[in-house]
Amino acid sequence: MSRADLLIPYAPMKAFTCACVLLPVTLGVGLASAEQAAVRVVASSELRLVIVDAARASSARDALHQAFAASLGQTMGAACGGPVAVRLKCQGADQAAFALGNGGCHVVLALGKTVPRPLVLSGTTRLNATLGAGRNAQEACLIFANEDEGLRKLLTQSFAAAITDPRFLDALDGGLESAPDPGKGQKLASTAGL
Fold first, then answer.
1. Rounded Cα gap, residues 86 and 69, in angstroms
2. 20: helix, coil or strand?
3. What is the 3-state composition of the chain as percent helix, strand, coil, each rounded to the nearest 5?
4. Three-state secondary-structure class, residue 150
């Protein structure tokens, strides 16, 4: 017998060695897979909204974002017959486009003079509204994926009502709800002599 014959294992011995090594590994993976196969699915009526705003960060800007989220949640809730919570986050255009593309958010609202270039995405719907007039005019663009037909219909139906909601418009104008109502007998400050 040569030295080469001693190094080559016999076919039965090779099969036994493979079975001894691979069988425990295969069973271990199978048991681990069975334990991980239990998947828990949780549904939520929460809408994830990302706002891209060209304005500087301020309490007025935050109030505007909160007012839009509340208006959108209320109009969507009225349309679908149940409460809709809107969780909002303010991000840059690149981050918002990434979140919309990978399912990190359902919808993006872009506020500014124009829609930021990263948010011009294929496979999305864009609903536009012009806020203000003249030099102060800005565009509000609601952007969402076309994948969910029910969400697309609901957002299309709710956007106009949300953008014209008095709470949102008051926040856009800087909080006019705190101004006195002349019809209630309150006197406004006189501007004579200015």
1. 6
2. helix
3. 50, 20, 30
4. helix
Please give the CATH architecture assigned to the domain spanning 47-173. 3-Layer(aba) Sandwich (3.40)
What digits encode the pLDDT tens for the residues 79-133?
988 889 999 999 999 999 999 999 999 999 999 999 999 999 999 999 999 988 8
Amino acid identity for residue 187 in this structure:
K
Give the domain ranges of the chain.
47-173
Q: Which residues contact 155 (CB under 8 A, 6 or more apart)?
A: 76, 107, 125, 127, 142, 144
Residue 184 has what pLDDT? 44
Predicted confidence band at 194 (pLDDT cuts at 50, 70, 90)? very low
Whether the model pTM is above 0.70: no
pLDDT recorded at residue 14: 53
Contact yes or no for 111/90 (Cβ under 8 A): no
